[in-house]
Design a protein that fits this description.
By secondary structure, this protein is α+β, with helices and mostly antiparallel strands. The protein is 18% helix and 28% strand. It has 16 helices and 50 strands.
Length: 919
């Protein structure tokens, strides 16, 4: 059979698979030996005890030894493990467990590099001593050590357990590891004669040259009502129990980056990215978090109440504290885990991002609307689509090209017949302030005439198969090899390929999309790379699989920084992700489907990503697969306008769906939804800066802002954009009404009409076709830009509108962040950070930034919501200029806006401090 025919058949099989997701193409827990073994262990089965506790290099160090003696004929001898605990500022505890290297294991286990940021390591608290005490509940000897003024770390010696508790003798626990005695660490060893270590799945065989090497343990979150996080799954935000009474046949949450077409909603099946970070939240205590830095396949059980009832007498669990117990299972690696004490939800997210890094600050254009399709056919198609946006007065900032723009699926090239003048094409877009994104995937076409392949082969830069040869798998180009981006030298080489010299036809307005970087291998096991493939440092692919796309994303972003000589912020969208990906760009939820259920599940998926550091995320508006009916498409635009990353995208087999193709009324509705995003760009950009500084996400669960309101804990139909906007999607066809819960005791103002609604209540609202419910929170000030332009770049010098929503104390506050929107100069202090307040009848603005940036922008209007009385004038200070207060619309969208007190053209410069007194 010829190669071309073989490739055609492989693709046919893959495409068929893609259009009907087949469960048997992927392993479940029972087909995954390490998961099956870990699930079979009983509570209390761990035989390890803590010995030889000491202080070394500012850490608490000990040995974990089995108290069960090895018999002379025992096949596997348990060697001591090394435990090391470090304490860091802001109540962060780090726990590491590995094999004792002095005992000569067959190889060193893989530890994930380049994820923990150096700044975090500099916050280490150098432990000087520890205290020993006897636990009053009879659970044995404890070693305690300082973590922070309010908390201490504790090691229970026998049975082995690590936990954080409030700082008091027998204080309440916050987090613990191995309280249920499920810890197991399969040590590397030499293969004995006759042993079969190979694993088989379908037609694939994994040689497993080092044998079983999995790790599993239980983690408990105390006084928690729900747990969240560990994306990526198409499921509810609050994680459901996967094991326990009446749940014996359910699957754990899987973390294994895979190329999954048309994924199922409401499923624990792993998708494109993996973040092994879980948060808990409860009314009585607040929030805590646990993060395991491990890049191997992971399976996580959330254990239902009562799962361990029959073992309570053995475990000696605290009777006065409830907990949510979880079981963490990984195929390989080491224990490198972090406990985050919280106690607020924002505290936990901040603590996590101090370890893995805060989200990067995007360019302003990237926070606007993106238009994408697989594929825009040629330069004429690009030109026509661009012109139609102008014809219909619909703004957009980025037009995307998928794989068909290349010369034979060779990245960094152009199809010379379809795209003969790529630089001119990009310049025409740039003249309107617009940008272009092209796709660059990690599979490299094995073509000797292709300069990337030739160099990579000569320099031995490819991942190797288990026999040491360049790995050869199948992807879009056919026969392909994959760069070993775990190697820093190869990442640097790859970054150089984005120079204008190497990427011929690229311009400064061109940015990049990394797809298929899980990595996707069409003919590989589970559509991925074999686990026994070999990487830099003799690491097996099984040990680092979930981080492969992260390193590719990193190298690409570094390439764009290099290209711009360190002056311009990169924009790179990645499908695969791992902890730390937030430092390099945006992600999206992958190949979704044009179904109402996928619109619905997009919200918890994006919220989960935000909670775990990935604030810049979104879902394909309209659904990648299938043809959405018009109502679904309109509702998706109305919701997508509030996603942090706002992009429409579609498969090449779908009908064209640009905004103007669905009749005049629907064109207006979609245009209005996009205009909402552009109107709110100053607010979104300010929130991206907040995420860049604190890690707190742009899109937030309601409970992040209302942590004591139990009605918000499992609500993932609505979400907050920052602390000031609440958005409720409409997720059903032909809906007549929609129920919205508005938390808190203060009122909320309908964003379009300005009408006030009572807080702490559920409101049944009419489902209007022109918008979804969105509300501004009383006590907030939201900045806007209300003039309609072709792109965000053309809005740069437009005036601002401030919407002041007053609470019951007639007060409000907000922030506005402004910089040049593109460079790294903000890191040197070139920005404005305005603190806006209204109190005692005075609205004021003060710059709390360094003052190294100025803007020519002015305040065009100030809109008051909830202003008591009927004031007619205001006094602008320091010029003592009187201005009128008139009634004006709350927004310029739609026809239902109510009149609100408005100050028009008060003559204020955004760069200056000012005050306005309402008379």
């Amino acid at each position: 059979m010829g190669k071309s025919l073989y490739f055609f058949l492989v693709l046919c099989l893959f495409v068929d698979y893609g259009f009907s997701w087949k469960k048997d193409e992927f392993r479940n827990c029972n087909q995954t030996p390490f998961c099956k073994r870990a699930r079979s262990r009983k509570p209390g089965s761990c035989s390890l005890v803590v010995t030889h506790v000491t202080i070394d290099d500012g850490d608490l160090v000990a040995k974990l030894e089995s108290k069960r003696e090895n018999s002379e004929n025992e096949e596997i001898v348990a060697k001591p493990l090394i435990l090391r605990i470090s304490a860091y500022q802001d109540s962060v505890l780090r726990l590491r467990i590995d094999e004792d290297q002095s005992l000569g294991p067959p190889k060193k286990r893989f530890e994930v590099p380049d994820v923990i940021v150096p700044e975090f390591l500099g916050t280490k608290l150098w432990l000087q001593r520890f205290e020993k005490e006897k636990n009053e509940d009879g659970s044995g000897i404890l070693s305690t050590f300082y973590l922070s003024d309010g908390y201490e770390g504790v090691i229970r010696h026998d049975p082995f357990e690590v936990f954080v508790r409030e700082k008091a003798r027998n204080g309440k626990k916050v987090l613990s590891l191995n309280s249920n005695g499920l810890f197991d660490f399969e040590q590397l060893r030499e293969k004995k004669e006759g042993e079969d270590w190979e694993e088989r799945f379908r037609s694939h065989t994994d040689k497993r040259p080092y044998g079983p090497q999995s790790i599993s343990f239980d983690v408990s979150f105390y006084d928690a009502d729900f747990v969240y996080g560990i994306p990526e799954h198409a499921s509810s935000l609050a994680l459901k129990a996967t094991r326990g009474p009446e749940l014996e046949h359910s699957e754990p949450y899987r973390l294994f980056n895979l190329d999954v077409f048309e994924y199922l909603h409401d499923s624990p099946f792993g998708l494109y990215g993996s973040i092994p970070f879980m948060l808990s939240h409860g009314k009585s205590r607040g929030s805590s978090g646990f993060f395991w830095l491990n890049a191997a396949e992971m399976q996580i059980d959330v254990l239902a109440s009562g799962w361990n009832n029959e073992f309570e007498s053995v475990l000696k669990l605290p009777s006065h504290q409830k907990s949510i117990d979880t079981l963490w299972m990984s195929e390989a690696g080491v224990v490198d885990a972090f406990f985050f004490v919280g106690s607020g939800p924002k505290d936990v997210v901040r603590q996590y991002t101090t370890v893995t890094g805060a989200p990067s600050m995007p360019q302003l254009f990237a926070t606007a609307y993106h238009q994408c399709r697989w594929n825009y056919r040629d330069e004429e198609d690009v030109s026509n689509v661009d012109a139609k946006f102008d014809e219909y007065n619909i703004p957009y900032d980025v037009l995307w090209l998928d794989i068909e723009h290349t010369d034979g699926k060779k990245y960094f090239t152009w199809d010379k017949l379809l795209f003969p003048n790529p630089e001119e094409m990009q310049r025409k877009l740039a003249d309107k302030g617009r940008h272009m994104v092209t796709i660059v995937d990690p599979h490299i076409k094995r073509d000797d005439s292709y300069f990337i392949h030739k160099e990579a082969t000569e320099q031995r830069y490819y991942v190797k198969d288990s026999n040491g040869n360049d790995f050869d798998g199948w992807c879009w180009p056919g026969s392909s090899s994959y760069l070993d981006v775990v190697n820093p030298e190869i990442r640097s080489w790859w970054a150089d390929k984005f120079s204008y010299k190497n990427y011929v036809g690229s311009t400064p307005s061109l940015y990049i999309w990394n797809d298929m970087n899980e990595p996707s291998v069409f003919n590989g096991p589970e559509v991925s790379m074999p686990r026994d493939a070999l990487h830099y440092g003799d690491a097996e692919h099984r040990e680092l699989h979930n981080a492969y796309g992260y390193y590719f994303h990193m190298a690409t972003a570094d390439g764009l920084v290099k290209r711009g000589e360190g002056k311009d912020r990169p924009f790179v969208l990645s499908r695969a992700f791992f902890p730390g990906s937030q430092r390099y760009g945006a992600v999206w939820t992958g190949d979704n489907t044009a179904e109402w259920e996928h619109l619905r599940v997009s919200v918890p998926m994006i919220l989960s990503l935000g909670l775990t550091g990935l604030s810049f995320s979104g879902a394909d508006v309209g659904g990648f697969f299938g043809n959405p009916d018009t109502e679904l498409l309109v509702r998706w635009y109305q919701l997508g306008a509030y996603y942090p990353f706002f992009r429409a995208h579609a498969h090449h087999d779908t009908k064209r769906r640009e905004p103007w193709l669905f009749g005049e009324r629907n064109t207006i509705l979609i245009s209005d939804a996009i205009h909402v995003r552009y109107m709110l760009l100053p607010y979104f950009y300010t929130l991206f800066r907040e995420a860049n500084v604190t890690g707190i996400p742009v899109a937030r669960p309601l409970w992040m802002e209302f942590p004591s309101d139990e009605k918000t804990f499992s609500n993932d139909e609505a979400f907050m954009v920052g602390n000031g906007l609440l958005v409720q999607g409409i997720y059903t066809e032909r809906a007549k009404h929609v129920s919205v819960y508005l938390p808190g005791s203060e009122p909320w103002y309908n964003m379009r009409t300005g009408t006030a609604y009572k807080g702490g209540a559920t409101h049944k609202l009419e489902a209007l076709d022109d918008s979804i419910p969105s509300f501004q929170r009383a006590g907030t000030i939201i900045p806007r830009k209300d003039r309609f332009r072709r792109s965000s770049t053309q809005m740069e010098n437009d005036p601002y509108t401030l919407v002041v929503a007053l609470n019951s104390s007639n007060a409000a506050q907000g922030e506005l962040y402004i910089d040049d929107g593109k460079s790294f100069e903000f890191q040197k202090g070139a920005y404005l950070h305005l603190h806006l307040t209204f109190a005692n009848g005075i609205l004021s603005s003060s710059n709390i930034g360094p003052g190294k940036f100025t803007s020519p922008c002015t305040i065009d209007r100030i809109i008051f919501l909830g202003l008591s009385g009927k004031p007619k004038t205001a006094l602008v200070e320091p010029d003592n200029l009187k201005v009128d207060i008139v009634m004006g619309p709350a927004t310029f969208l739609g026809s239902s806006s109510s009149a609100a007190p408005t100050i028009r053209k008060p003559g204020l410069q955004i760069s200056e401090n000012w005050r306005i007194k309402v008379l």
